Amino acid sequence: MPWWSWIVIWACLVLALLAMLVFSGWRLFRKAVAVFDELGALGAKLELLDAAITEFDTKQEQFALLQKYSDVQEQRRKVRDASLARKEARRSGRLDRGRALTRIDANSRRWFQAE
């Protein structure tokens, strides 16, 4: 075996090592970028949760026994009005869906396939 064959073998091994390192580095870089993207999304979700927690903390109410009767009565009236409004919205939605199902314009309907 000539002396230069060892140089060729070692050059090929070094090139293969460099290629493997570049390939591994590229994969690691792509994974790191994906992790940072996910961390950004997680940060946005945590901001929403933090805002919800602060909103929840500020909306904590006192016990009704410790409040004035007029305040409790006003609060109960607001809850009842909101409940009735939601109930009416659901009822009107059901009525609209029912009207849409029962009112069919027979003149604009296509009854048979045209060939």
Would you mind describing this structure in some detail?
There is one protein chain. The chain has helices at 3-58, 69-102. The protein has 115 residues and is mostly helical. It has 2 domains: 1-60; 62-102. The protein starts with a helix and ends in a 13-residue tail after the last helix. The mean pLDDT is 87.
Q: What topology does this entry show?
A:
Blueprint: H1 3-58, H2 69-102
Identify the notable features of this structure and list them briefly:
115 residues, 78% helix, mainly alpha, single chain
Question: Can you describe this structure in just a few lines?
Answer:
The chain has helices spanning 3-58, 69-102. The chain is an all-alpha fold and 115 residues long.
